């Protein structure tokens, strides 16, 4: 059966401008990290992706290393594009990144021009696209001159392989430097993708979010649910969850008793608002005008629907924000980039 998008897909989603650009993103964007790898079959992937688009989620975020194995998420999304989403390409914002290890040897990681350009070309091939809408440098590289990494982004932009460029997990000083270098090259730094949640506020602590506002850079927050900790599922035990998986990316500090106690207290606040904890957490991230979108990752359709319940939710009152701060205080996580 040929997929036909819901005619009402734009009726309820909220869209925000990205910094001082003309590009608007949905307040909820869908990332394909970890959950769309080689073990995900086409029908279950399409069920989630098509429902998201039918609800106005136009932005799908990928990276070269998303899987597992690396590259698998781009390949799967490329199949969805070719088979079902192709008529809607101009309604989609598709992003990818380079910055983590992809192939052996000295040219398959970090931030050299050699690596970034080659990786972008590989991503386009896996996706079956001539261009992505946004291409990021995935992490700051202390061993490569920033002028080289930003020059690679500018080259992709000038070649039409990326309509916009951005950075991910850059601290304040490096964000300012990257913006200045790109500006000198005549290429705007559209967007910054940092981790940000109720329990992880490093972009507030080191003023990165304020720098983005000053410079006109949009902010899209990844891990707004602290990799599922703010779903409340870990307070019930770890069996069957990501934390139980071998080589889990979820650090042990995220599951300490003080963190889980904070999560329980936040759950009480959510119930008083008649929201799920997931929805409260997304509402909190989206409370700031600097934040263009909250980038979610889901394994199931039910998780996606829960997240979408945060769209157009009532704003948090000053009293609720104060209560959230008090509940979270004892369970804060330090997840700032440290490479």
Q: In a nutshell, what does this entry contain?
A:
With 339 residues, the protein is an alpha/beta fold. It is built from 11 helices and 10 strands.
Key structural traits:
339 residues; alpha/beta; TIM Barrel; 8-stranded parallel β-barrel; two-stranded antiparallel ribbon; 10 strands; globular
CATH class: Alpha Beta
Oligomerization state: single chain
Low-confidence stretches: none
Topology as H/E string? EEEHEHEHEHEHEHHEHHEHH
Report the biggest beta sheet as strand number plus sense, adding barrel if it closes: 8 strands, parallel, barrel
Structure description:
This protein has 339 residues and is an alpha/beta fold. It has one domain: Alpha-Beta Barrel (TIM Barrel), CATH 3.20.20.100. The chain is built from eleven helices and ten strands. It has helices at 42-54, 72-85, 113-127, 146-158, 172-184, 202-205, 208-215, 257-272, 277-285, 301-308, 318-328; strands at 15-17, 24-26, 28-31, 59-61, 93-98, 132-137, 162-168, 189-193, 218-222, 291-296. The strands form two sheets. An eight-stranded parallel β-barrel has the order 3-4-5-6-7-8-9-10, surrounded by five helices. Strands 1-2 form a two-stranded antiparallel ribbon. Helix 1 (42-54) packs across helix 2, helix 3 (113-127) runs parallel beside helix 4 (146-158) and helix 8 packs antiparallel against helix 11. The longest helix has 16 residues, at 257-272. The chain is globular, with a radius of gyration of 19 Å. The termini are far apart.
């Amino acid at each position: 059966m040929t997929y036909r998008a819901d005619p009402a897909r734009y009726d309820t989603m909220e869209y925000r401008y990205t910094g001082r650009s003309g590009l608007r993103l949905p307040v909820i964007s869908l990332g394909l990290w970890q959950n769309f790898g080689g073990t995900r079959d086409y029908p279950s992937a399409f069920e989630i992706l098509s429902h998201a688009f039918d609800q106005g989620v136009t932005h799908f975020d990928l990276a070269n290393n998303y899987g597992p194995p690396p590259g698998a998420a781009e390949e799967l999304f490329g199949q969805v594009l070719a088979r079902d989403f192709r008529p809607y390409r101009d309604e989609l914002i598709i992003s990818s990144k380079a910055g983590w290890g992809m192939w052996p040897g000295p040219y398959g990681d970090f931030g050299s021009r050699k690596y970034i350009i080659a990786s972008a070309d590989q991503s386009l091939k896996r996706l079956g696209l001539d261009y992505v809408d946004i291409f990021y440098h995935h992490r700051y590289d202390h061993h490569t001159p920033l002028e080289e990494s930003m020059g690679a982004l500018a080259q992709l932009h000038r070649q039409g392989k990326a309509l916009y460029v951005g950075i991910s997990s850059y601290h304040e000083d490096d964000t300012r430097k990257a913006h200045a270098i790109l500006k000198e090259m005549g290429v705007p730094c559209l967007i910054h993708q940092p981790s940000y949640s109720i329990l992880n506020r490093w972009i507030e602590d080191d003023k990165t979010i304020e720098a983005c506002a000053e410079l006109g850079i949009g902010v899209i927050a990844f891990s707004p649910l602290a990799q599922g900790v703010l779903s409340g599922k870990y307070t019930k035990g770890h069996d069957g969850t990501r934390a139980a998986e071998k080589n889990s990316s979820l650090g042990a500090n995220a599951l300490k008793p003080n963190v889980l106690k904070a999560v329980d207290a936040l759950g009480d606040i959510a119930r008083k608002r008649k929201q799920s904890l997931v929805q409260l957490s997304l509402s909190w991230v989206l409370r700031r005008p600097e934040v263009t979108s909250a980038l979610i990752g889901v394994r199931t359709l039910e998780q996606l629907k829960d997240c979408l319940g945060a769209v157009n939710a009532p704003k948090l009152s000053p009293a609720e924000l104060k209560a959230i701060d008090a509940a979270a205080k004892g369970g804060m996580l330090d997840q700032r980039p440290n490479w």
